[in-house]
Every structure is written in C-alpha cells, then in structure tokens.
Amino acid sequence: MTSNRPGTVGELKASGYKPRTVKSELRQNLIIKLKAGEDIFPGIIGFGDTVVPMIVNAILAHHDFILLGLRGQAKSRILRQLVDLLDPEIPILEGSEINDDPLNPISKYARLVLEEKGDDAPLAWVTRDNRFVEKLATPDVTMGDIIGDVDPIKAARGGHILADELTIHYGLLPRANRGIFAMNELPDLAGKIQVGLFNILQEGDIQVKGYPIRLPLDVFLVFTANPEDYTARGKIITPLKDRIGAEIQTHYPTELSIGIDITRQEAWLDRNGIPTEIPDFIAELVERIAFLGRDDKRIDQRSGVSQRMPITVLESVVSSAERRALLLGEDRVVPRVADIYSALPAITGKMELEYEGELHGADRIARDLISSAAKGVFQAHAGGSDVEEIIEYFELGGALQVGSESSAEACVLGFEIVPGLLKLVKAVGLAPKKCSDGLRAGACELVLEALAADRKITRSVSGSYAKARHEPPPAKGYQGFDPFGGVSA
Predict the structure, then answer these.
(1) pTM for the whole thing?
(2) How far, in Å, CA of 69 to CA of 226, rounded?
C-alpha cells in the first residue's frame, strides 16, 4: 500500500490509470514472470513438464479452465497460487460490494455514487488476496449462494421496491468481480446451478430473480473435479463442460524421487526437540507404499491413494520414533521399519477398498504394502547380495525379536548375533561404516523385512523373525503389480 495513491476518481483519472480485464491482468503478469524465469507455482513438485505448461497456455489464451484429478494432487493449492498473478492492489469505488471499476461501474450503487459525486467519489483499494473467492460445490448450494437473491430487509431499510437493483444481496460470484472465482468439485453442484453458470462462462453476465438486471462480470473462473464424475455418465452437464476453455489433467508423482521430495517438503518433520535423522531408505520405503497402493487391485483406484498418505505416514513414523527416544532417553530420533508398522492407522485411513479388499481387510493390505515396499527398497539398493548366511541362521532354529520399543543399542546387539547381517548393510551402503546405532538398526530391520517379504524367513505381527514356514502361496485374490519389480504376492 502506498500513501500517494489516488484517493478519488478524479485523482485516478489524472494518474493515467487505465482499467484492464482480470484475464488481461493475469496474462500480462504471467508474461513478466516467464520472461524473468520465475517459478510460476513455487512448491508444486512434479508438474513442471506436464500440468504447469497447460495452465500457462490457458492463461495466455484468456481461457477459464478446470483441473481434473484424484484427491491429493495439489489442485486446490494450484488454484490458490493463481492469486500471485494478480496486481498487488486495484482501485474500486468505496462501498461497492462487487469491486466496481471506478471508470467502468456495473452496479446501480456505483452509478448513483458517480452521478452524485463525480470526480470527488472516494476510492478504496483491494489487495490481491481479497480478490480470490473459493467455494466447495455441494448439492445444497443454491442460486442465491452463487449469484444472489433479493433481500427484503435491504428493501425495507432503504425504502426500495423489491424490483429495485439496490435490494439485491450479491452472491459469491458477483463478489469475485475483477478477481478469481474457484469452485472445487464442480460436478457435485446441482444441475440447475450448473445451468446458471452458462451465461457467466459465455457472456460474462448474470440475472437475479428474473429481473432484467445485467451485470457484465469480469471474472476468471477456475474449477476442480474428479475425472470419474466429469463425464457424460457422471454428474456434469455437457453444455457447461463445453463452455470451459481448458481441461487439464493432474496426476500423482510419476517417479519415486519426485514423490519423496513432495513428502519431505509437506511432512512436519522438524519437531523442535530431539534431533531427527530420517534414513533415506525409510523415506523411500514410505513412498513405495503409496506407489504400490496405486497399483493394488484390492484398493479402489477411482478414489486413488492420495499423496497425503505418505505425508501422514512419514509424520506418524517420526512420531513413533520420537516417542521411543523420549521413553528411552535416546539423544536422536531415528525411525526404523517397526515404526512404519506403528503407523498403520495412517495407511488404513487413506484407502478405499474394492470388494476383494474388504474381504482381506485394510490392516492386512497395509501390512502387505509395507512388506512389499521393504522388498522393493532392498532390491533397489542391494539386489543380488549374498544373504544365505542370514537365512541359514534362521533355518537352524535361530530367532530374533525386534520391538518398536527396543532401543537402537539393544537392537544392534541383537543383530550382531545374526551372522553377516551388520556386514551386509554396510557393504550395500544402506548404513555407512561410521553411523549411529539407530541407522544401523533401521538398515538391519529393512534387510530382515525384505527377506520376510521374499518368504526366506517369517515375520510375526509382534515383530519377531524366525525360520520360514514354507506356506503355500496365497490365493489368487491378490496379484498386485509392483511398478518397481514385476508382480508381487
């Protein structure tokens, strides 16, 4: 905000101010950012070569657009960041409910003010944050909520007849005039309200209660939707779909490294207490759980496995390790595989199951995903390593109990009993030669978990490892595709 900005319409005219549409404003500010090489959507990872270029094209073309994607694909965050492409502030006629342009007013209130005061009409300045209006579409949203309705109380207080434009209580869309109106989950909007958006998208105007009041709104409209609903068989009206300029598909991370970067960025990991050290293989294991879930036939892929899953799982894993460190007086928080099992509620709560999945149960599916993910991490970093010495220890009757409440030091002492285990994790680089007991314990658990997933040894629910039982393979119900290594059972 500047102190020397115009305060009246006359001063605004003298300043050389020229109004422009919100789409022109977005386009010009976007061009400036592109020329300067700035990041258009900071903090949005993995969309640089796919989603972002399509959004840029839509804005450059003055097109309204819709983002189609499953939950947890940063759709709402992208829409909210569009605010950064608006000017820092714009002038409006003071008292206007719909951000009337002082040089091109559209409401009766603004016209009356200009008739009465002329160039002395006072201005107000609206910041970019106040020019973004967001609404979640639900079946109970009314035309009055979106467009507006006649307000009898306004009429009585002002002494107006109900047909007077001054009696209108404006809805969210008119209040977004000269700004951005974002609607999430568009297909959930009732059919008659979708019809009400026709004129806004095509002509830029609205009508209230059938009165011949034309408000040529200047609004940039953006929407989000689930692809399953945004079809002729879904809940979207085809003529409305036809009027939206660009249909842009979002997606989950296409590469494991991108998913890990997103999760580390979004997860709350700095607890401002005991120092935290998250092994890379634990972060990778957590991310693989989500990747495997997105290909598991027992999980409803129409709902998807949100990116919120690995974020909340990693936070829960750190919390489990933090609790152990606090109880045992350890000087460092280092998560292990046992902590991922402690985070099961963060996994089961993020999955919607198919019929087959309901038969198996969310808890079993989550455990399967953890086990398969551990196997995938081990194969990626230590595939082909000699593990016969470790397997032989268990085949000869050896056993090992690893609890999430055990200290890292106690775990390492136990792992030393298993021939070749500690040497293996150092040799394959899972744990460097000079590292904390917590990191070595976590790496050893990963090896054992991978061997259990490969049915070379067995793991009980309580976390004890023993000789493989050589059970028959599971029923054909689960043949989940493992994107990191073929078919996993």
Answers:
(1) 0.86
(2) 5
